[in-house]
Amino acid sequence: MSGSEPKNLSVSSSTGSSSDESVSSSTGSSRRKNIVDDQTNPSEAATAKDGTGKAEDAATKDVDNKKGTEDDEKNKITKKEDLNEKPSAPVRITIPRADDLASLLSVNLRTDDRIKFSWSKITVSTRPGLKMCGLRGKTPKKEILKEVSGVVRPGEILAIMGADGSGKSTLLNTLLFRNMGKLEVSGTRIANNALVTPNNLTALSGYVQQDDLFILGLTVREHLCFQAMVRMHCGLSKEEKWERVEEVLDELELRDVQHTLISSASNEVEGISGGEKKRLSFACEVLTSPSLLFCDEPTSGLDSHMASSVIDVMVKLAEQGRTVLTTIHQPSSLIFSKMDQLMLMSEGRTIYLGPASNALLFFNKCGFECPSNYNPADFFIDALAINPADPERSRKKVEKIATKFKESRVGIDLDNEIENDLKYLALSEETVSRSPYKVSWATQFIALCWRNATNVRRGGWIVLVRVLTNMLTAISFGSLYMGIDSSTLSGAVSINGGLFLLVAVLAFSNIFLTINVFNPEIKIFFREHFSGMYRVDTFYLAKVIIDLPISLVSNIAFLLVFYALLGLSWVKFPVVLVIVICTVISVSSFGFMIASIVATVDVGLALTPMMVMPLMLLGGLFISINALPPYTKPVRFISFFFFAFEALTSNQWEDTQGISLHCPKNFSITANITDCGTVDGAELLHQQGLEMGHKWIDAGALLVLAILFQIIGFIGLSIRARKR
Ligand SMILES: Nc1ncnc2c1ncn2[C@@H]1O[C@H](COP(=O)(O)OP(=O)(O)OP(=O)(O)O)[C@@H](O)[C@H]1O
Ligand SMILES: [Mg+2]
C-alpha cells in the first residue's frame, strides 16, 4: 500500500466541526485504508483529464420524475460557481476492459475502476390509484422513501438495517432503477462524481435480490456455467470463466450440490435447499467480481456458518477495492462486526449512516444504552421499532435519534460529502454510451439456446407424456369419424368437421401450452435482462427456436393418429403435414404474443378464449363466409382457423372435381349443387365461402400471420422491459 488514500475517498473527513468527538467520521474503514493502491491518485488523474472544466459544463442530474427536481437543479447551478475552490474529483466510470481482465478476477481492483457511490434525496411514493371498493375517490399516495441520502466508498461494506417494511429493498431497487414501474421516484444517484444511468450501473454492478428466481431443470453447475457465459466479459477465455466457476463453487460451499437440480422442471422433485438457492443467487452475482455489489438480505435463511461464508466473500471483495451495499436481517454479532458502515432506516427515513463501530456510542449519547452481552444489531432494531401499542411515542423517539444524527459530526460530514458530490456531478460521454452487455449477441443467443435445450432435455419425459396424451386424444376424437364414407355428402361434411377439429385442437393446445410455459419465464427474463445478461431479442428468438420444434413433435403425433382414423388418403398426407406445421407455427406464435403481453398466466388464460373464439367463428365451418355480414369478412384474414381450414379442405377435395357424390335420401339443399346426387369439391368448398386451389397461399398466409404475431409479441415484451 502506498499509504496515501485517494482524495476522492476522503472528501468529507476533514469537513465539519468536531463538536462530537465520539461520533466521528474519521474512523472510516480500516479495510479501506488497506486497499493496495498501486495506481496513480485518481484525483490527480481526473484533474489532468478534467482540467478544462468539461465536467462542470456538463453538470446534469438524474431525474426519475420531473416533479421535485427543480430545486436540485438550482442547487447545482449555484454550486457550480465555486467549483474552483474544491479539489478536483474523478469523473470516469469504467468497467474493466478486455485487456485488464486480471481486475475481473481475484486481484485488487485498479483505482480507476473503484467506485464511490452516493445518492441524494431519493424519494419514492406509490401512485394514487382508484379505490377498488366503492369506486369513489383515490387511494392516497404513500411515501415509501423520504429524501434518503447516503454514500458508500470503495473497500467498504455498508450494511443497511431496519425493521421489516422500513424501505430497505425499495432503496436498493431504486438505486438500481429496478422494479419501479408503479412508483414515483425522484432523486440523484452518483458514481465517482458522474451521473448514474440504468445501463452504466448495470454494467458496473451485481445485485443479489431478496427473492431467488431460477430457471428450473438446471443443475447448480449448469446454472453457474450459463451465468459465466453471459455475465463474464467476452475477453475472457472459456477456461478462465470455468476456472472462476470452480472458485465460486468452493467459496460458497456449493461443490457438494454442483450436480443437483435447482428444482426439477415440473417441481415434482425437490431440488437444492432454500439456503443453497440463496448462496447460488449470491454466487451468480459475485462471479464477475463487480466493482459495485448490492445485496438484499443475502444471509436470510442461511445457518450461521453459511451466513459467515457469504459475508466473508463480501469482505474479500471489499478488500480488493470493491464497493458493497447490503441490507441485512438479524446479523450475528460476528457478522455485524465485519460491517464497516451502518445505515439504519425507519419508515423510509435514514436514522443513522456512519461507521458501524461508532453506532453504539452514538445511541448511547442519544440516551439508549445497549445492555452488555447484547447483539448490537438486535439492539438497534429494537430501539427503532414502532410499537403498535403506542406508535406516536415510538415515532417521537426515532425522530429524536434522527435529529441528533443530523446534528452530529457524522451527519454533517455526510451532508457535506453528498453536497460535494452533487457539485461535481457531470455527465461524461462515457456514461451515456455504456452498454450493459458483457458478451456479443451471438454468445448470448448460443448460451440461451443451450439453456433452453438443456431444460427441455431434462424435462424429456414431459414431452413423451405430451405425445402420449395427444395420441390418446386423437384416438378418442378420431374414433368418432371411423368408417365415414367420404363419397357421400354427409360423409364429406363430416370430414370437413374433422379437419376443422384438427385445427381447433392444434390451436387451443398450443396457445394454452405456450402461455403456460413462456409467461412464467418472463419474470426471470426481466431480472436477467436488467442484470445486463442478454437482450430482449436474443431471449425471444432462443425461446421460439427451441420451443417450436418440441411443440411440433407432439402435434405430429396427434395428426398421425387422427388422420389414420379419418381414413383419408395417405397420398395427400405430405401436404397435410406441411399445412399442419404452418398452423402450429402460427398458433404457437399467437400464444407467444399473448404470453409476452399479459402480466400473468391467469390473465393470459382468461383472455385467450375471448380472442380465439371470434377467429374460430370466422374459420369457415360454423358460418359460411358468404353468409357473414360484409364488414366482418375482412377479419377472417387474421384467422389462422380460416387459412388452415381452407388449405386442408382445398387439399382434401381438389381431386373430387367431376366425381359424383351420393346424395342422402332426404337431401334437400339445391343451391349450387346440381341435381340431387352430384357435387364436386370446388362446389363443396364454395358452400362454405372457401376457395379451391388456395392451399399454398393459405400456408404462406399462416406463416405471415406467425411473423405478425411474433413481431407484436416481441414489441410487447420490449415495451414491458423498458418500463422496468
Ligand atoms: N410497489 C409498491 N406499492 C405499494 N407499496 C409498496 C411497494 N413496494 C413497497 N411497498 C411498501 O413499502 C414499504 C417498504 O417495503 P420494502 O420491501 O422496501 O421493505 P423492507 O425494509 O425491505 O422490508 P423487509 O425487511 O420485510 O424485506 C412496505 O410497507 C411495503 O409494503
Ligand atoms: Mg426487503
Automatic annotation (TrEMBL):
Keyword Acetylation tagged: no
A Pfam family hit: ABC2_membrane
Cross-referenced SMART domains: AAA
Principal place of residence: membrane
Residue ranges, annotated region (Disordered): 1-90
Membrane topology: Multi-pass membrane protein
Keywords: ATP-binding, Membrane, Nucleotide-binding, Transmembrane, Transmembrane helix, Transport
Residue ranges annotated for the ABC transporter domain, each copy included: 130-372
Compositionally biased region (Low complexity): 10-29
Sequence intervals crossing the membrane: 461-483, 495-518, 539-563, 575-598, 605-625, 699-719
Keyword Secreted recorded: no
Gene Ontology CC: one annotated term: plasma membrane
Compartments (UniProt record): Membrane
Record family assignment: Belongs to the ABC transporter superfamily. ABCG family. Eye pigment precursor importer (TC 3.A.1.204) subfamily.
PANTHER family membership: ABC TRANSPORTER G FAMILY MEMBER 28, PROTEIN SCARLET
Protein name from the UniProt record: ABCG-like protein 4
